[in-house]
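hey so i finally got around to running the thing on that chain from the lab meeting. sorry it took forever, my laptop kept dying and i had to restart like 3 times. anyway pasting the input first so we r on the same page abt which one it is
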Amino acid sequence: MTIVPSSRVGPKEVYRNPYMIVRHDVTRKLLIVTRTSAPYPTIDTMRDTFLEMEAAIGYVSRPRTMLLIDARAALPRNDPDFEAEFGRLRKHFLREFQKIATLVQTAVGILQVTRQVRADERPTGAFTDPSEALAYLGVVIEPERIEVRG
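ok and heres what got predicted. didnt touch it at all, straight out
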């Protein structure tokens, strides 16, 4: 687990590993979770990542914070064991956020998020356009500011 401070105005990185990058914009009450294209080598690695992300955002008031998940770089994976564990971890991680939006690359991605939303019983907007996702969350920020740099 690497915790990286940032002096940039706007979203500040609070967690990074090869699979996820988490940034928090305190002013806008926005948490941005970006999935990289690196595949999880094991289910245990995915579990560890979620535990580390939880620890990194322990200070965040979820009921007062919007969550933007940027899954556009994620590679598809749907083996049953992975899906089951990812579903459990995702549902736990999403708990209590004020509002959630997920960015995906394609219409197929929107269908997958829609299926997950039904399973989670947690309202989540699914979008391919960052501007639409931010509007759904009611957050005013330039869409390019949500992109991961470096």
